[in-house]
Amino acid sequence: MSKEIACSGCGFSGLPTSFELPKSDEPKSWQITNIVLAALAGAALLFFGIYVIAALALAALFPPLILAPLIGIVLYRRWKAKKAKL
Question: What is each CA distance from 86 to 5, 72, 77, in whole angstroms?
Answer without folding.
Answer: 90, 21, 14
